[in-house]
């Protein structure tokens, strides 16, 4: 086929980056086409990432909570799990959200083209129609012409090369499919995705082993936060193998036999009904024929961009997982808005819009485990490594009326303030971390405080409602300021 219409903006990829860019561009009055190989919009996040994992984690958290209720005087007895029904609930959640996106695209008159996109020039993308799961190409091709493009093609799970092809070896997508609950499960990679899926499967009845190359689980978070999670989750694991590599695997009738090697040379082996590979994600940059458009792609498949999300080609932008870490949906969405605004500004001669830039100071991270672990901005470990003097305000939830009433007072809230001589004792907040139930819902306040340049007095004097877990943020600030005299 040939190009019969030129679009103002072509967006490649329908994940949180892509649909957010397409919607913002359409809202700003541009003619937009969105290319996605799968039947539904939403990308990894809605279909096989953030949302389905949280649908399952919610159920796991309720099950865990209910199991503690006997101590409080209410015994629900042993749960009876219907995996088919649970999977059905997860599918329904996805369907609601992806259906909503399709409607929003229609309302905004965004043209959605289903197929696999490859660049054929600096202003043209060829789309080969796909069907079924999105992997099957039908052979029917169209070429779309565009003035500007936004690449939002995302990332995919890394596969360890020595793992055999076997249904019992899955990545996060396979784990979310929730075919059945294994007796014994191995999680390769102790990061957020692996530990979230481990939480779900263990609550449903699986025993877990985890293997991690680094010297601790949940890298990136301060160890004091992770320690609380570890103490509460030890019971799920038979073995936590740190500083250990997975070096081989074979499929046998009894299970997947996996070989490990410690960094000190110790060798060991385990047999598993299910193995989850969660060793990271790799960007899709090398699969788009980006060179045909002149767009530079790194050896690892990332596309480098400036703070306006512009690639090496000035009229082509890139956003989301494909431009680098952290690979998080909320980062993709913000980058999407920047790219769409810059493009609209340029095409419409609006200088203010055209000068949009991604200048967020911080991007929060959350492990939606039980308890949750959330952190934002500078960590204590980074402060130490970078020689930044900080004043710490730590509020233990053992002193929080609400946490105690909830029967969940294992957590704490920690804030870090600039304590350099130039701060003269009124240092701004640089970072914070929370471990405890609902930590992820609360970390946004600390992100806001950092963006606004708040100091300990600003946060401590802000009246938080009592009794809430959120007031632990105000209390932590008072601790840092030295004015915390009583506790609720
Ligand atoms: P993606 O969501 O990867 O979307 C890219 C889209 O482009 C895909 O739909 C793909 O089909 C399409 N595509 C790619 N190439 C082509 C092509 N050539 N032609 C046509 N279409 C193409 N993040 C969070 O912030 N919070 C969470 O709780 C969270 N949980 C997660 C849990 C799991 C199990 C996983 C795997 C990820 C999770 N993430 C989470 C990460 C989050 O999913 C990603 O950061 C986010 O989806 C990135 O958005 P994106 O738009 O950059 O790319």
From TrEMBL:
Which molecular function GO terms apply here? dihydrolipoyl dehydrogenase (NADH) activity; flavin adenine dinucleotide binding
Q: Which residues catalyse the reaction? A: 466
How cofactor binds (record note)? Answer: Binds 1 FAD per subunit.
List positions binding NAD(+): 189-196, 212, 280
Q: Which GO terms describe its biological process?
A: 2-oxoglutarate metabolic process
Disulfide cross-links? 45-50
| Binding locations of FAD | 54, 117, 321, 327-330
Which reactions appear under catalytic activity for this entry?
A: N(6)-[(R)-dihydrolipoyl]-L-lysyl-[protein] + NAD(+) = N(6)-[(R)-lipoyl]-L-lysyl-[protein] + NADH + H(+)
State if Methyltransferase is listed as a keyword: no
Which domain of life, per UniProt?
Bacteria
Q: What is its EC number?
A: 1.8.1.4
Keywords linked to the UniProt accession: Disulfide bond, FAD, Flavoprotein, Lipoyl, NAD, Nucleotide-binding, Oxidoreductase, Redox-active center
Q: Which cofactor does it need?
A: (R)-lipoate; FAD
- UniProt keyword NAD present: yes
State the remark under miscellaneous: The active site is a redox-active disulfide bond.
Protein family (similarity comment): Belongs to the class-I pyridine nucleotide-disulfide oxidoreductase family.
Q: What is this protein called?
A: Dihydrolipoyl dehydrogenase
Which species does this protein come from? Roseateles asaccharophilus
Q: Which residues of the full protein are shown?
A: 116 to 603 of 607
């Amino acid at each position: 086929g040939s190009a019969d219409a030129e679009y103002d903006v072509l967006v490649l990829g329908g994940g949180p980056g892509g649909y957010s860019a397409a919607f913002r561009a359409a809202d700003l009055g541009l003619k937009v086409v969105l290319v996605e190989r799968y039947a539904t919009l939403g990308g990894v996040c809605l279909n096989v990432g953030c949302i389905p994992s949280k649908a399952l984690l919610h159920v796991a958290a309720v099950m865990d909570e209910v199991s503690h209720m006997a101590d409080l005087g209410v015994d629900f007895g042993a749960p009876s799990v219907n995996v088919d029904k649970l999977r059905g609930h997860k599918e329904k959640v996805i369907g609601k959200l992806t259906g909503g996106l399709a409607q929003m695209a229609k309302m905004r008159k965004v043209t959605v083209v289903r197929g696999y996109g490859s660049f054929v020039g600096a202003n043209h993308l060829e789309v080969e129609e796909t069907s079924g799961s999105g992997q099957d190409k039908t052979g029917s091709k169209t070429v779309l012409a565009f003035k500007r493009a936004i690449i939002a093609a995302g990332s995919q799970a890394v596969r360890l090369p020595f793992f055999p092809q076997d249904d019992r070896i899955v990545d996060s997508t396979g784990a979310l499919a929730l075919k059945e609950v294994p007796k014994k499960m191995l999680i390769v990679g102790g990061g957020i995705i692996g530990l979230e899926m481990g939480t779900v499967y263990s609550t449903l009845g699986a025993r877990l082993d985890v293997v991690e190359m680094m010297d601790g689980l949940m890298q990136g978070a301060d160890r004091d936060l992770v320690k609380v999670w570890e103490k509460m989750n030890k019971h799920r694991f038979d073995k936590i193998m740190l500083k250990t590599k997975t070096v081989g695997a074979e499929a046998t009738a009894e299970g997947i036999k996996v070989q490990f090697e410690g960094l000190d040379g110790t060798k060991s082996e385990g047999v598993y009904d299910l193995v989850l590979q969660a060793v990271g994600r790799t960007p899709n940059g090398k699969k788009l024929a980006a060179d045909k458009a002149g767009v530079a792609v790194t050896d690892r498949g990332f596309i480098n961009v400036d703070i306006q999300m512009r690639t090496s080609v000035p009229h082509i932008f890139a956003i989301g997982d494909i431009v680098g870490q952290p690979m998080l949906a909320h980062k993709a969405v913000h980058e999407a808005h920047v790219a769409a605004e810059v493009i609209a500004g340029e095409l419409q001669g609006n200088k203010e819009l055209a000068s949009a830039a991604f200048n967020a100071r911080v991007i929060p991270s959350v492990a939606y485990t039980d308890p949750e672990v959330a952190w934002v901005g500078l960590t204590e470990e980074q402060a130490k490594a970078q020689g930044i003097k900080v004043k710490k305000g730590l509020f233990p939830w053992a002193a929080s009326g609400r946490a105690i009433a909830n029967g969940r007072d294992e957590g704490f809230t920690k804030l870090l303030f600039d304590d350099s001589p130039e701060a003269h004792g009124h240092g701004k907040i640089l970072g914070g971390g929370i471990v405890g139930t609902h930590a992820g819902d609360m970390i946004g306040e600390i992100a806001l405080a950092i963006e606004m340049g708040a100091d300990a007095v600003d946060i401590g004097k802000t009246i938080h409602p009592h009794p809430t877990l959120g007031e632990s943020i105000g209390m932590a600030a008072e601790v840092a300021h030295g004015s915390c005299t009583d506790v609720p």
